């Protein structure tokens, strides 16, 4: 128990309440206006949030599932700083064209000169060695997991020592083009496939911390999905305080926005909820039912699912495994079970 710190739920709820109060002027007894027009803020209102007398101390936040995965595993599994990287030969790969760039890397389509197979070459920008080791260690630990992008090789330039990661190639379509064309069933199918990847990485004691459409590659012709970019991913340890400067702004959970550092896997579930909302609410029509009853059922299932993901308190959110069992995915599960029976 950490004395003197406000309760986790109180912090999040009151941060949200304070923000809402600014816009609605509906300020309750726990929010006090200090100065309606402080000089440094122009016309904005400065608020003070009173801490409650009774619930000022709270127990440590801990993941509801997979909390002790790394506690029970040997140190070599999660101690990425001790990783010795085995470098491959960069001359085995040739750059074909640039396909993207990010804060920490530039990404190219490439070719393996020995096998003539296409690949993706992620050339890393100068960052701390331990960050590179963390990404490599996590990718190695997750190798073979469902819908996790496969790391094929690790190479570096002999002169500049610039490291590059070699990945399997996915013939993906830009999400801004693809998403508006997806059917209701397609959306459920791909979110279900993404949940498989998240449940697996969580079960291995790893948080992705940057779930967003840009990091979900979809080959729609092959109906193949891969979760990519594990550069911000981290091993989960109960009680550890993490950097809140992770995830992309529009997909950040409330816990990050109020600087709650002892977050967990549930951060990824908020990001998934934001991604799903973007997919279904940009569609026209939002919900396509065969009749009035079917229309109502489709709306109810989707909204209920989103409601259980987009919870302010991260410990109230569905886990990835719980999400996969939600009625929203009934058709997807039925189709998958049918395929398995016929194989």
From TrEMBL:
InterPro entries: CK2_alpha, Kinase-like_dom_sf, Prot_kinase_dom, Protein_kinase_ATP_BS, Ser/Thr_kinase_AS. Keywords: ATP-binding, Kinase, Nucleotide-binding, Serine/threonine-protein kinase, Transferase. GO terms for biological process: inflorescence development; photoperiodism; regulation of cell cycle. ATP binds at residue 122. Its EC number is 2.7.11.1. One of its GO terms (molecular function) is protein serine/threonine kinase activity. The keyword Signal does not apply. Belongs to the protein kinase superfamily. Ser/Thr protein kinase family. CK2 subfamily. Casein kinases are operationally defined by their preferential utilization of acidic proteins as substrates. PANTHER family: CASEIN KINASE II SUBUNIT ALPHA (PTHR24054), CASEIN KINASE II SUBUNIT ALPHA-1 (PTHR24054:SF56). This is Casein kinase II subunit alpha. It comes from Acorus calamus.
